[in-house]
Amino acid sequence: MKKSHFYYVLIVIVLEVVLIGVKHYTKSKPMSLLGINFVIDPGHGGKDNGACYKEVLEDEINLNIARKVMNLGINDGAISSLTRTDDYDLSSENAKNHKSEDLKKRVDFINSSGAQFFVSIHMNCYPQNELVHGPMVYYEKNNEFSKLFAENMMSVLNEFSRTNKKVHSEDFYLFRNTEIPGILIECGFISNKNDRNNLSNDLYQQEFAKKIYEGIESTFISNKI
Fold first, then answer.
1. Burial bucket for residue 133 (CB in 10 Å: 0-12, 13-18, 19+)
2. Mean pLDDT of residues grouped by 10 in the chain (225 residues)?
């Protein structure tokens, strides 16, 4: 066989292998949220640690899980972003009320992001009863899409955590002042030993992030926002 013909055959084979790989990837993992824009809001940060229990800090776990959800979105072709990307709050150094300004800037970020929906990530704590455990999902009062989103998310998280929680409507500042639908997820109770150990574990955080993303997919695919 001539060298030129050999190289031609080799190139054809390589191209066929690449095409087969691309087709296999496309079939196995379609980009379900391609081009969709959403915001993940990791609650608290900086001096505001949120809930604390036995040296476990809520704001650190919030950010870890939020980053993982954002990366799942980016890898899926979505436009996903975070209201904070490190251990800080969004208030200015000389703010009269750091909590109030932090929340306002989160709202401003979400409203100016061009996003279609948001998910706020938090942790629960109930030291009065350390047996209480499992994720909870909150939606905006009187917002039907937010309720549907929360119910879909709760269904996925209940199956994952083997619980049977119901969604809850709330009038949170974040809900009242954002211009797009959203939900707030309390990922578990850091006052509960099993939840605390799980939520402090990177592998568990990754699995939990995948479930959050699954809840997002189940809502968006069946209900075009």
1. buried
2. 45 43 48 91 96 95 98 96 96 92 97 97 97 98 96 98 97 97 98 98 98 95 62
CA count, 13 A, side-chain hemisphere, 139: 19
**C-alpha–C-alpha distance, residues 96 and 42, integer Å:** 22
Nearest to 83 by CA among 61, 65, 66, 59: 66
Query: H/E element holding 119?
Result: strand 117-124
Are the beta carbons of 168 and 184 closer than 8 angstroms? no
How long, in residues, is the chain? Answer: 225
Model-level pTM?
A: 0.85
Place of tokens 């942790």: 123
